[in-house]
Write a structure and sequence with these properties.
By secondary structure, this protein is of the alpha/beta class. It contains eleven helices and eight strands. Helix 10 links the parallel strand 7 (210-214) and strand 8 (233-236). The longest helix is centred in the last third of the chain and has 19 residues, at 183-201. It is globular and about 45 Å long. Its EC number is 5.3.1.1. It holds the Pfam family TIM.
Length: 254
């Protein structure tokens, strides 16, 4: 049985002090617990320490995640963050391969694969993103496109514990646009992702890997996605910047 997961991607929002306030608000909203739902908050790098301290001080029922990582241990890589640096501030999850990283910064599937291997070597769970553009969707190639991403992103990975790897399906055309894939759209691709994971890792492992939906997920539509067999939660953008909205999504998943 896969535990559901609701992960919040704050993107490039919230200063250090604002991040602390938001984390404190979320801790209060969720002080009754989250049941069997795993909750992850992914703030900007400069906010990681502050949110980590809120989690420790408040006993908050959510884990800390980063938004990016570099695959080298240390060295002359100005502006990058190593896996050990994330571990040192309490991060146990990290988003990789987000379409904004791929689109704005030219990241490739090979980069995503290297990052996944580096994170897993340090005990950090990758939340590995995939998804198609509107052009690919309109051509009816969404399944083919995403399956190819999954195969490249997981090449050479070893997964001993299915809980230690998460996939997030985010159709690019639905991220921050107000457009949302239907629950059936999400299930079509998420089902194909799970079948591909079974080909790569075996059915038992694939059955345990969480697959999240992202792309304008909100409190009023998340329940519909969660009804689908292969959708195990959500990677939330804008709605994660308000404690009450994000908490409502967590509660909808409980």
């Amino acid at each position: 049985m896969r535990n559901r997961m609701i992960a919040g991607n704050w993107k490039m929002n919230e200063t250090f002090s604002e991040g602390v306030v938001l984390a404190e608000g979320l801790a209060k909203e969720l002080e009754g617990g989250t049941g069997s739902v795993d909750v992850v908050v992914c703030p900007p790098a400069v906010d990681l320490k502050g949110v980590s301290e809120v989690i420790d001080q408040k006993g908050a029922p959510f884990a800390l995640g980063a938004q990016n990582v570099y695959w080298e241990e240390k060295g002359a890589y100005t502006g990058e963050t190593a896996p050990s640096m994330l571990t040192s501030v309490g991060a146990t999850y990290c988003i990789i391969g987000h379409s904004e990283r791929r689109g704005y910064f030219g990241e490739t599937d090979e980069d995503v694969n290297r990052k996944a291997k580096a994170l897993m070597a340090h005990g950090i769970v990758p939340i590995s993103c995939c998804g198609e553009s509107l052009e690919v969707r309109e051509a009816g190639r969404q399944v083919e496109f995403v399956v190819d991403q999954i195969k490249k992103d997981t090449a050479g990975l070893t997964i001993d514990d299915s809980a230690k790897y998460v996939v997030a399906y985010e159709p690019i055309w639905a991220i921050g646009t107000g457009k949302t894939a239907t629950a059936d759209d999400a299930q079509e691709v998420c089902g194909a992702i799970r079948r591909t994971l079974a080909e790569v890792f075996g059915q038992e492992t694939a059955d345990g890997i969480r697959i999240l939906y992202g792309g304008s997920a909100k409190p009023d539509n998340v329940a519909g996605f969660l009804e689908r067999e292969d959708v195990d939660g959500a990677l939330v953008g804008g709605a994660s910047l308000k404690a009450d909205s994000f908490a409502a999504m967590v509660k909808a998943a409980m």
